[in-house]
Amino acid sequence: MKKQSNGFTLLEIMIAVAFIGIALVAIMKVQGQGIRLTDQARLISRNVFLARQIMAEAQNRKDLAEGLERGTF
Questions:
Q1: 3 state SS for 4-69
Q2: How far apart are CA 4 and CA 15, in angstroms?
Q3: Phi-psi region of 65 (alpha: psi -120 to 50; beta: other; left: phi over 0)
Q4: pTM of the model
Q5: Can you tell me the distance from the alpha carbon of 22 to that of 14, in angstroms, rounded to the nearest whole number?
Q6: At residue 67, does pLDDT exceed 70?
């Protein structure tokens, strides 16, 4: 008589769980890198905006004289 197998063996389940675990670790690593890059991009954008604002304020000052290379900022 042959014994018929209807389910999975413990080894097959352990291998499947290991693959799922490895995949989840990789996904979490990529997600963490994405969050860090988003935060860095936000900081760079804010710094560029602030620098443009300071430059616009400097250009609109009334006490600027043409030809001067020094001044207080």
A1: CCCCCCHHHHHHHHHHHHHHHHHHHHHHHHHHHHHHHHHHHHHHHHHHHHHHHHHHCCCCCCCCCC
A2: 22
A3: beta
A4: 0.56
A5: 12
A6: no
For 57, the token pair is: 């304020």
Instruction: Show the tokens assigned to 40.
Output: 């860095």
Model confidence at 18, pLDDT cuts 50, 70, 90, reads very high
Q: Round to the nearest angstrom and report the end-to-end CA distance of the chain.
A: 94
For the CA atoms of 50, 55, 57, 59, what is the dihedral angle to 10 degrees? -170
pLDDT in tens, 49-64: 999 999 898 888 877 6
Q: Are 61 and 73 in contact (CB under 8 A)?
A: no
Q: In the structure encoding, which two tokens stand for residue 32, read together?
A: 């963490």
